[in-house]
Each structure stands twice: as C-alpha cells, then as structure tokens.
Design goal:
The complex is a heterodimer. In chain A, 0% of the residues lie in helices and 57% in strands. In chain A, a hairpin with a 4-residue loop joins β7 and β8 (70-75). Chain A has strands at residues 3-5, 9-13, 18-25, 32-37, 44-49, 53-57, 60-65, 70-75, 84-91, 97-99, 103-108. The radius of gyration of chain A is 13 Å and the shape is globular. Chain B contains no helices and eleven strands. In chain B, the strands form two sheets. In chain B, strands 2, 4, 5, 6, 9, 10 and 11 form a seven-stranded mixed β-sheet that branches. Chain B has a four-stranded antiparallel β-sheet with strand order 1-3-8-7, with no helix packed on it. Chain B starts with a strand and ends with a strand. Classes of the chains: A mainly beta, B mainly beta. Chain A binds chain B through residues 30-31, 33, 35, 41-45, 48, 87, 89, 91-92, 94-102, and chain B through 4, 33, 35, 40-45, 48, 56, 58, 90, 97-100, 102-108.
C-alpha cells in the first residue's frame, strides 16, 4: 500500500512561519502536489514539485527531496485566512494521486 | 470559465439504498476523477474517466461504479449503501491526465447514510 504521512494538526500565530512536512513511501513517484482545503470547501491547487528543490510562489513555498521521500510546504507571513487543511498528494506510476490525511493549520491572532 | 459543479450537494439515504451523484467538469476538460473524503482516511481515489472510458481505478468494492458521457459529464453510483459510505464525495477535472497537470475540484456531495 501507499504510505503518506503528514502531521494531523499545527497551530501558529499570525505573521509567523509554519512548515508542514510530508513523507512518503509509495510504489512509484511522478510528482507531488500540495492542495489547500478550507472547511466545507473544495481543495484548491497550491504547488507541484517533480524535481528536487524549492519552488517559491509568493508566501508559499514547496520543497521536494526524492531521494529522502520528503516534501514540505512553507507558509510565510501567516494570515488568518490561511487557517485550513493542507493536503499532500503523491502522483503514482499510473498517474493516480494518493493523498495524505491532511494537516489542519490553525492561525491564532 | 465555470468551475466544476456537483449535484446534489447534500444527500441523506438509508442503508441498502442506492445513490447516483453527478459531476460536470470545467468546459474542455476530458478527465474526471472521483474521490471519497472522510475525517479519518483523507481523500481516497475511487476512479478516473477519460473520453467515456474508465482509465484508472482505486481499491473500492464493486458497489462503487461510475460512467462518463460524451460531453465529459460524469456520474458515480453506489449501490447497497452501508453506514461507512457516509462521506464527502469530490470530483475533480483536468484537461488530459490528472497526475501531470492541476486538477480542479468541485464542492462535493455530502452523503449521510442512516
């Protein structure tokens, strides 16, 4: 089976930085997506990594190390609206997506 | 462009019944994937349709089935409902291949089985 691990919950203060880790052991790897999901809403795309390294997109950055089976999503200058669930999804060999259980981030004032 | 739409948004059924959920993808998108989301399991892949053919399938029992029409709209059906089928069912569309491009999710259908 596929194993994708993320912390269940994280709490941080407005203006701070939070790093959400995702480790994976999967049968094949063709990339990794990060999605954001606000409560009661659809997941929305944040980032995609297929090569090792850091991808920066405004306040959000995502890092991938294929050799370590590891990715993280970095959220900088946290805002209240960043309170949401963050989903890590690995693209398997047959291009199916296998999702982690998600990390709920709570931003406090 | 209109986003992915799903109907109905909420549904209450009883054990043993069957249910059909509908998904209309973004115009021009030919791939539609279905996922089940529960608090403990996260998003789990059900199946993916492309050009009216099931191209990929997850590890769900045969009670879960789907189809795609020539206009790319898709339906999924769950027969003989069980309590454990209570979940949020999400569909997502992409132009060609979900693993190679961004998927766009619909708002989901929340199914409660009593």
């Amino acid at each position: 089976g596929q194993n994708i691990d993320q912390p269940t919950e994280m709490t941080a203060t407005e203006g701070a930085i939070v790093q959400i880790n995702c480790t994976y052991q999967t049968s094949g790897f063709n990339g990794l997506f990060w999605y954001q999901q606000h409560a009661g809403e659809a997941p929305t795309f944040l980032s995609y990594n297929v090569l090792d390294g850091l991808e920066e997109k405004g306040r959000f950055s995502s890092f991938l190390s294929r050799s370590k089976g590891y990715s993280y999503l970095l959220l900088k200058e946290l805002q209240m609206k960043d309170s949401a669930s963050y989903l890590c999804a690995v693209v398997l060999d047959d291009y199916k997506l296998s999702f982690g259980a998600g990390t709920t981030v709570t931003v406090r004032a | 462009k209109a986003g992915v739409t799903q109907t109905p948004r909420y549904l209450i059924k009883t054990r043993g019944q069957q249910v059909t959920l509908s998904c209309s993808p973004i115009s021009g998108h030919r791939s539609v994937s279905w996922y089940q989301q529960t608090p403990g399991q996260g998003l789990q892949f059900l199946f993916e349709y492309f050009s009216e053919t099931q191209r990929n399938k997850g590890n769900f029992p045969g009670r879960f089935s789907g189809r795609q029409f020539s206009n790319s709209r898709s339906e999924m059906n769950v027969s003989t409902l069980e309590l454990g089928d209570s979940a949020l069912y999400l569909c997502a569309s992409s132009p060609q291949t979900p693993g190679q491009e961004t998927q766009y999710f619909g708002p989901g259908t929340r199914l409660l089985v009593l």
